[in-house]
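FORM 7B: Structural annotation worksheet

SECTION A. Query
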Amino acid sequence: MKQQDLSRAMTGPESEKSGSNTSPLMRRRDRRLACLLLLLLLLLLLLLLLLLLLLLLVLLLLLLLLLVLLLLLLASQLPYHCCSPPARLWHARL
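SECTION B. Predicted structure
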């Protein structure tokens, strides 16, 4: 009896380390935990991708705003004869 207890005590931690002594329920729980961690990682990657797309959209909108401002600046530098007829008449009155 004491010999069995001694052999169990000596082989217990080693068999737990190797995983041969784990029950199927523990292995199933470990698989579920691994799947949940993988799902969480995928969700974080998706969130990062969405943030990158949002940043790209903001940069494109800023570029469009810069282009519009540049066009307005160029349009303000045009001579008066390119303006609409009422503006030309108003300029002639001055």
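SECTION C. Observations
Residues 13-17 have pLDDT under 50 and may be disordered. Residues 22-65 form one domain.

SECTION D. Sign-off
Analyst initials: ____
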